[in-house]
Each structure stands twice: as structure tokens, then as C-alpha cells.
Amino acid sequence: MVRTVSDTEYRFQIPALDQAAFLFDFDGTLVDIAPTPEAVVMPDGLAETLRQLRVLCGDALAVISGRPIDQIDHFLGDIPFAVAGEHGIAIRHRPGGPIERAALPKVPQHWLEEARALVETWPGTRLEHKQAGFVLHYRATPEAGPALKAAAEAWMREAEGAFHLQAAKMAWEVRPTGIDKGYAVSLLMEAAPFAGRKPVFVGDDVTDEDGITAAKRMGGAGLRIPTDFPTPAAFRAWVASLVESER
Ligand SMILES: O=P(O)(O)OC[C@H]1O[C@H](O[C@H]2O[C@H](CO)[C@@H](O)[C@H](O)[C@H]2O)[C@H](O)[C@@H](O)[C@@H]1O
């Protein structure tokens, strides 16, 4: 099947909407990358498109992000049925439900202290502290990337496998080992309204590869920007076309 959206031809297949579950990454997929995490803007029409998609797929709409769940709530409110945050470490399976957190080791305090001191020596860099890890952002100071990486690699040697260093978009992320977006896809797909459907996972980053692999393994579709969609805007237009096709 070929679907043409704004002159772009898409040759991959996804399940019919009444058999599909949609699991979308946030930054760089649903929304464009911005100079800082707070500066992200919800594009016009996206909220309404996602609300309609959720109705058409029987509520089986989730967002799986590296961000903490409260940040996804800030941008998307009650739009997705389920949300997985921190790459699957925290999962809320249904609207208003409890947030389930995987039991993982805490980041050693001295790493955080050293990370705080490090970003102060590189103006424009910043530390984003998550419950189970942290991110060193260098988008505004690209020349700091190697120094931040070297510091994080030293912490990883000390971690002896309990944590690992993830290359992110203009950032280095220290994450506990063992939980990833593939785990989040598998766990969400076990329960209603996702169970019995085929997952369609879409992401843009290295961390999304685990979600893509899991979705394919379950007989669904795993799609990536820019391989399958040239840009987040093209992806959003494709989602809008799915909704439009059901009118
Ligand atoms: O899994 P995602 O939803 O794609 O989240 C990945 C990370 O996104 C955020 O950082 C990235 O996006 C920022 C806003 O566009 C950008 O300024 C930054 O350079 C990117 O690295 C977020 O801050 C992280 O916590 C997420 O893990």
C-alpha cells in the first residue's frame, strides 16, 4: 500500500486503526526539537489530531518518552491514554491511574555534585536531574560535549554496569541499566486497551530503537524519523492523514 501525504510517498504498512495501538515518542517526533526542554511548542492542531486518533483506535494511544511523566502531562494533559516516562522507568497505564516505578539503584550523590560543578564550568550547559538518572545538555555549548562525555564515562567505570551512558540529542544521559523503551512497549501491550492489538511505535532517537525493535517483534510497525518520515512535521501530517481517512 502506498499512502501519499503532501507529495511524500509512504510505502510501509501499519495495521488498520481498529487493530492498531499507537505508541509515540515525544521530543523530535510529536514535537520539533527546541533549544531547551522547556521551549518545546505544541504545534497547532496536534492535540485535536491525537484526540481523534485515540477515539479511532479504541483508546490505544500512549506516549513513551525519556522525559519524566509530569513533563509529558504538562504538554499533553489527558490526550494519551497511557504514558511511560524516563524511557520506561515510570509508567501510568491509564488516565488518573497510579504511576508505577521500576525499582532501580539511586544515582550516587557525588556524581550529581560533580555534574552540578561541571555544568557551572561550561556556561550554556545544564544538568537535568531525573528520579533515576540525569542528563547533561550541551545544545547551547556544543564544544562542551567531549568534556561532559569524559566525566560521565568516568562515572560509568565506577558504576560497574548498574548505569550506562546514553548518547542523546546534544546531550549525554546517565541511565540505570535494564529498562528501556522496548520494555515499556511490551508492558503497555499486555493490558487493555492495548492488548490484542498490534503496536505502531514511532521515534527519532537512539533510545527509540528499543521501542522500534519491540513493536516489530510483536508483529507491528516500528518507524523512525528521519528514515521513515523526513521530519516531525511530516510525521504529524501522516498522523493527521490517518485521522482524515476515517472521516
Ligand atoms: O524520548 P523523548 O520524548 O524524545 O525525550 C528525549 C529527551 O528529550 C529532551 O531533550 C531533548 O529535547 C530538548 C527539546 O527539544 C532539546 O533541547 C535537547 O537538546 C534534547 O536532548 C529532554 O530534556 C530529555 O529529558 C529527554 O530524555
Structural descriptors:
247 residues; alpha/beta; Rossmann fold; Alpha-Beta Plaits; seven-stranded mixed β-sheet; 13 strands; 31% helix; globular; binds ligand L263DTV3
Rounded to an integer in angstroms, the radius of gyration calculated over CA atoms is 18 Å
Whole-number count of domains: 2
Order of neighbouring strands in the sheet with most strands:
7-6-5-4-3-12-13
The number of strands is 13
CATH first level of the largest domain: Alpha Beta
Could you say what the CATH architecture of the largest domain is? Answer: 3-Layer(aba) Sandwich
What is the CATH third-level topology name of the largest domain? Rossmann fold
Major sheet, described briefly?
A: 7 strands, mixed
* Secondary-structure class: alpha/beta
GO biological process, one term: trehalose biosynthetic process
Pathway: Glycan biosynthesis; trehalose biosynthesis
Protein name: Trehalose 6-phosphate phosphatase
Enzyme class: hydrolase
